[in-house]
Amino acid sequence: MQKYFVPSEQFGDQSIQITGNDAHHIMNVMRLKPGAEILVSDGEKREAVVVIEQCGADGVEARIVEMRDFDREPTVQVTIAQSLPKGDKMELIIQKCTEIGAVHFMPFISERTVVQYDSKKEAKRLERWGKIAKEAAEQSHRNVVPTIASSMNWKALTAQFASYDLVLICYEDERGTMLRDVLEAFAPTQGDMQGSMAKQARMMVVIGPEGGFAAQEIHSAVEAGARCVSLGRRILRAETAGMAACACIMYQFGEMGGM
User: Fold this and answer.
1) In this predicted model, what pLDDT tens digit does every residue of 152-190 receive, in sequence order?
2) Do 80 and 121 sit in the same domain of this protein?
3) Strand partners of residue 37
4) What residues have CB less than 8 Å from 137, skipping those under 6 apart?
5) Are residues 91 and 198 in the same domain?
6) Which of 136, 170, 209, 219 is exposed most, by the fewest CB atoms within 10 A?
7) Do 48 and 1 touch, CB atoms closer than 8 A?
8) Span 11-66, pLDDT tens digits
9) Do residue 148 and residue 245 come from a single domain?
10) Closest residue by Cα to residue 110 from 28, 209, 196, 43
């Protein structure tokens, strides 16, 4: 069933009004007609199966037939902190990590970041990334759309570490500590895996650029409270590492690999 996120003000008690790009997608891409069922969420607390009743110039009007539980979000909240990669790789990272279960993205600039960052393009970049996150959340039937922070420098990123229960920095030269070992020691301490969203553990995964982290960045990250971990004996691309780490976390918390 096709899913759409709509602003909360369009979500009524008995009906939902869908406008803009979503209405265009329903009418002109999916070519859905009155009588078709779709899934609609406000991304906050309400989700429902609705039946399309009318399609027109003002958008799509649909009637609520069944309210759904908010039960698609992971029992752990994962933030992907990604040093800005080249080209459109950040779009791929946001798309795939949203499907896997990440709730927040923090792009940052590190010493070996190759991208020439242009602050004038930040608003357009965030708009594009937000659209990709929304579409990926709809495709994977998430309850919420992940949020994306404005790009920041390394100092600003490490200042965020204290607000997380666990911060993992993935480093190709780490030899002593594997991601699995840290997760196995951490996950059981979180109690009931099926607890409420309010009790969810907050984790950040920090991924470097194509050239990796500088030694002083690793040192400052550990000083700020991060755990340095290895993802294995093979070196992953910048755009692959976050996906792999996020999937490992979801598996460890019982969110992937079966119920």
Assistant:
1) 999 999 999 999 999 999 998 888 899 999 998 887 554
2) yes
3) 51
4) 5, 98, 144, 145, 146
5) yes
6) 219
7) no
8) 888 999 999 999 999 999 999 999 999 999 999 889 999 999 999 888 999 999 99
9) yes
10) 209
The pTM for the full model equals 0.88
| Sign of the torsion angle spanned by Cα atoms 101, 50, 33, 127 | negative
- 13 shares its domain with 123: no
Distance (Å, whole) CA 185 – CA 252:
10
In this structure, the answer to whether residues 201 and 90 fall within a common structural domain is yes
In a shared domain, residues 104 and 123: yes
String of b and e for 207-228 (b: at least 16 CB within 10 Å)?
Answer: bbbeebbeeebbeebeebebbb
Cβ neighbours of residue 155 closer than 8 Å, sequence gap 6 or more: none
Query: What tokens were used for 116?
Result: 């020439």
Check whether residue 11 and residue 85 sit in a common domain.
no
Rg, the chain, Cα only: 20
Same domain for 132 and 237, yes or no, is: yes
Task: Please write down the long-range contacts of 27-33, taking CB distance under 8 Å and 24 or more positions apart.
Answer: 27/55, 27/60, 30/2, 32/2
Altogether, the residues listed in the chain come to a count of 259
